[in-house]
Design goal:
single chain; mainly alpha
């Protein structure tokens, strides 16, 4: 008799048609998105994609928090709720950027796969022409 996790895994792989290539692509996209986090150019591109998504209330909150930060003495900063507020605002933006970086990685992988297929087709065509 199969244990529950084994039976579930078998059902997933057999009956649901788990696509191993899609899973591998998703893992590769996650790894690539992780690399993009350290790439200023990719971060700026992601930021440009999400610009305007959060609405005027979010941007007003960011601007006001930055204004208050500028007018808070550094020694008093920990006595305020400002750091917590800035962290919450940053978390909202960070989540959007993370999602966009992953989407960009997925698209880059798809583009590379298409280019590889095109290159392979060109090589086959050149081989046929050479015969």
């Amino acid at each position: 008799e199969l244990s529950m996790p084994t039976a579930y895994d078998t059902w997933l792989e057999g009956n649901c048609g788990v696509d191993e290539a899609a899973e591998a692509r998703a893992e590769l996209a996650a790894e690539l998105a992780e690399q993009y986090r350290g790439n200023d150019e990719k971060l700026r591109e992601a930021e440009q994609w999400i610009a305007g998504e959060l609405g005027s209330e979010h941007y007003a909150a960011v601007n006001l928090a930055l204004y208050r930060l500028h007018h808070t003495e550094p020694a008093r900063l920990f006595d305020t709720d400002l750091l917590g507020e800035l962290y919450k605002l940053a978390a909202t933006v960070a989540l959007r950027i993370e999602v966009k970086l992953y989407e960009m990685a997925e698209q880059d992988i798809l583009d590379a796969e298409i280019q590889d297929e095109d290159d392979a087709e060109e090589a086959r065509a050149a081989a046929r022409d050479a015969e």
